[in-house]
Amino acid sequence: MGITSHDVARLAGVSQPTVSRALRDDPRVSEATREKVRRAAQALNYVPSEAGRTLSTRATRRVGVIVTDLTNPFYPHVIAPLHDELSGLGYRMMLITERSDEAVAEEKLLDQSMDGVVLATATTDSRLPAQLERRGMPYVFLNRDTGRAGDFASVVDNEGGGRLVARELVALGHRHVAGVFGAANTTTGRERELGFRLALAEAGVGLVEDRVVRGAFEYDTGYRALPALLAADPAPTAVFCGNDVVAIGVLNAALAAGVKVPDDLTVVGFDDLPMAAWEVFRLTTVRHDLGELSRQAARLLVRRIAGEVDPGGERLVLPTEFVPRATHARAH
Amino acid sequence: MGITSHDVARLAGVSQPTVSRALRDDPRVSEATREKVRRAAQALNYVPSEAGRTLSTRATRRVGVIVTDLTNPFYPHVIAPLHDELSGLGYRMMLITERSDEAVAEEKLLDQSMDGVVLATATTDSRLPAQLERRGMPYVFLNRDTGRAGDFASVVDNEGGGRLVARELVALGHRHVAGVFGAANTTTGRERELGFRLALAEAGVGLVEDRVVRGAFEYDTGYRALPALLAADPAPTAVFCGNDVVAIGVLNAALAAGVKVPDDLTVVGFDDLPMAAWEVFRLTTVRHDLGELSRQAARLLVRRIAGEVDPGGERLVLPTEFVPRATHARAH
DNA sequence: GCTGGTTGTGAATACGTATGTATGCCATGA
DNA sequence: TCATGGCATACATACGTATTCACAACCAGC
């Protein structure tokens, strides 16, 4: 069934090691032999077994990517550029969705079946990074990190983004603002909230707890949060959402509840997913380069695998930009 | 760095094969020895190297999944259940996005680095299945297939779904209908169009070429198609879209163009993605069980890998159901 | 005390590639 | 003519696991 380098060697009249070297363009093999080997390999339709190669080189050229819920529209926009960048760097992608099942994930990660891991779902209380560290498995954080020093991470200036939004809302005259923030055990959730709060406070605007909701970065979080926020007294005139997916949940809930956006309520998201620009949403949001965020993470991981990296950690931070569209307006 | 079964053997005072057997619950090893080995493995934090295992067993417990554009909202809803089902069956998922680059894909697929492949992007003119066949690599089609006999495929009753839509539109009095169908080299595109046309014809309703657009199953296809369709004379009162993503493109274009849905135009999709139910769309569409479609493909592939399968091919077809929401109305 | 069957374990080996080291060959220069 | 050195290739082996086969130890039965 399987053609091996031995078969090629026999046909080409050389030894197996020569086949190995010839096909990988080792300069020590002469041009004539190389050509002979190439032809034999071609004739037999030989493809080197990556299992053999892996065992011999102790490198799999494979990288694991851990996400939670793939059907969340955010992740595909991370996974796609990540896949392509890794592919360009000669690595393949194993997709792993980490449910509560951390034990299983660990088992899968620690069997040397990949050279490194991209963690796109880190929570500040996750034990996984420590496990990886102990086993010497290279990993980087993507989008979220643990917030601790020494991390290798590709992230966004979340705090800055939160500030941008607060300043815009204040400039528009909003004094009663609300937030549907991400989970408190994620850095993305915390930092966006922090930046938002700090800049509000600088302008003398408060953010009271009954106008704050926290939850997973999901559609439903936004959809279900709206009624609670509207029940606050006085009701908020603007709401900053933890990300675009949450904001889209809020927009849909607003439509269902007959709340006019932006006349009755200003809604602002974060991420600027392509979907945010759709005509039905025209969502005002905070942009960052999600593709670059991912590619950067891929390159950082590959550098870490190769060991060409600052042992004290590297944290690559992408800037944010306010994107005004049609879901914000002056306070009424 | 890496702990091997030899290390465990040494600590437990047994031979390496005994470790291998004990940890995999081979009945030939005594309970006492098994326990001793387990303890040693635990103490050393031993995890079997999957590279060694792969080389020895010639099975990788890995499956490749080929998609085109991950950022298309359709794919995550396939990949997520596929991942989970495969995971439950003891397989891991390698994600591969196949650009025009077929050669690269082949190379990656044929190096024995996975036990089987799920093809979610088959076109009727793809050479890949033949390549896989020649190398004896098990594969199944998911959602799309080649339309040839002997395939292993998990698909939807596309023709039936197309018929459902045609009958509903006819019943609503639509006589000038349009279609934004999928690409002609996909079975999903062809079969939905076919069913739609056949049932229209049975009702004596024609579908003229200037009210037909074909293109990739993407947002932009729908978004860009609308102006062309509206230019037809007489303009259509209803449009059937190749899938929900296309329909959502049409809905957004309608909003931009000031076309009222469903008063001016009925729009119908296909797939019933969660997004279709969003308040901003309330898309009338054709439902099938996308999760089951994927899980079924996973099980079929695993059976094919195990060889427990009808050599003449197996084609699992899921039924469709019309889902009336808010984007259809009587013809004016 | 021998045979024959079980049961549990170890020795040897296969899997396919890559690599460190040795070997053979040839040209060069004295 | 022979030593030297560079070049191309072969030999041996490592990588970590699973498996085949052989072999002990043990027991039952005669």
Automatic annotation (TrEMBL), chains A, B:
List UniProt keywords, sorted A-Z. Answer: DNA-binding, Transcription, Transcription regulation
Q: Which SUPFAM superfamilies does its entry note? A: lambda repressor-like DNA-binding domains, Periplasmic binding protein-like I
* Ranges of residues in domain HTH lacI-type: 3-57
One Pfam short name: Peripla_BP_3
Q: Which PROSITE patterns match?
A: HTH_LACI_2
Q: Which protein are we looking at?
A: LacI family transcriptional regulator
